[in-house]
Amino acid sequence: MKDMRYFVKKSILCTLATITLISLTKCLHSYFPIPFCPSFLSTSLLLLLTVRLYYLFKSTIFKHSTTLPPGPFSIPIFGNWLQVGNDLNHRLLATMSQKYGPIFLLKLGSKNLVVVSDPEIANQVLHTQGVEFGSRPRNVVFDIFTGNGQDMVFTIYGDHWRKMRRIMTLPFFTNKVVHHYSDMWEEEMDLVVGDLRTNESARINGNGIVIRKRLQLMLYNIMYRMMFDAKFQSQEDPLFIEATKFNSERSRLAQSFEYNYGDFIPLLRPFLKGYLNKCRDLQSRRLAFFNNNYVQKRREIIASNGENHNISCAIDHIIDAEMKGEISEENVIYIVENINVAAIETTLWSMEWAIAELVNHPTVQNKIREEISTVLNDQPVTESNLHELPYLQATVKETLRLHSPIPLLVPHMNLKEEKLGGYTIPKESKVVVNAWWLANNPSWWKNPEEFRPERFLEEECGTDAVAGGKADFRYLPFGVGRRSCPGIVLALPILGLVIAKLVSNFEMKAPLGMEKVDVSEKGGQFSLHIATHSTVVFDQITA
Ligand code: HEM
Question: Which residue, judged by its Cα, is nearest atom 7 of ligand 1?
Answer without folding.
Answer: 478
